[in-house]
Fold this sequence. Notes:
The complex is a heterodimer of chains A (80) and B (185).
Chain A: H1 8-18, H2 26-37, H3 39-57, H4 64-74
Helix pairs in contact in A: 1-3, 2-3
Chain B: H1 3-11, H2 15-37, H3 40-57, H4 67-85, H5 96-99, H6 119-130, H7 134-145, H8 150-157, H9 161-182
Helix pairs in contact in B: 1-2, 2-3, 2-4, 3-4, 4-7, 4-8, 6-9, 7-8, 7-9, 8-9
Amino acid sequence: xxxxxxxxxxxxxxxxxxxxxxxxxxxxxxxxxxxxxxxxxxxxxxxxxxxxxxxxxxxxxxxxxxxxxxxxxxxxxxxx
Amino acid sequence: xxxxxxxxxxxxxxxxxxxxxxxxxxxxxxxxxxxxxxxxxxxxxxxxxxxxxxxxxxxxxxxxxxxxxxxxxxxxxxxxxxxxxxxxxxxxxxxxxxxxxxxxxxxxxxxxxxxxxxxxxxxxxxxxxxxxxxxxxxxxxxxxxxxxxxxxxxxxxxxxxxxxxxxxxxxxxxxxxxxxxxxxx
Lengths: 80, 185
């Protein structure tokens, strides 16, 4: 099989598009190989993952008061 | 009682089952609404509107999709409607080359780790995502933050799978770049 050559920019585009997706096409194998060899792209890949992770960890919950206002608005009683 | 039974009971007029359903999804919906609006009052208002819609339309819910998908859709539509009422100037993210710059890769070394107490990073995250138009923001939040599949995200936002992927790709690259630039020294 002819080895596919990919550029750093191509990897960066693809990484953004494919995080969390299945990477099984020949092009993706070439990308994986590129990632193994290119520390810049690995750093980029990691930074996109970190970005997602930051937003995942940044969680908020409704206060007790806003819960009570909601139940009151809907005319519902709290259940145990 | 499982979710399916709760839905059937609530559809039949059981208010205890309805209250259970509300409690089951209250945190998810508030959290999603907050992540879209980045404002506690707007998040509470959106949560209230979402559950009012749920109560009004629950009898029409046919169970073909998950209740959570249905609620996310109501929430997302409410948020989009609110944003469309007000004029905003969001950053254009149509230029892929401007979003993905090889020069900015090294800057990430200065970005701190996320901790609940890190208000500086939280503020950076809030500012970055608020520059994204809600159409991109909602796709990023549903797919990456809430962990829904690309297909589910498409159903909620009325977008094709390629359109979801395209928006996701640009939103991720934009947010990464914004965070990176803020911490550039």
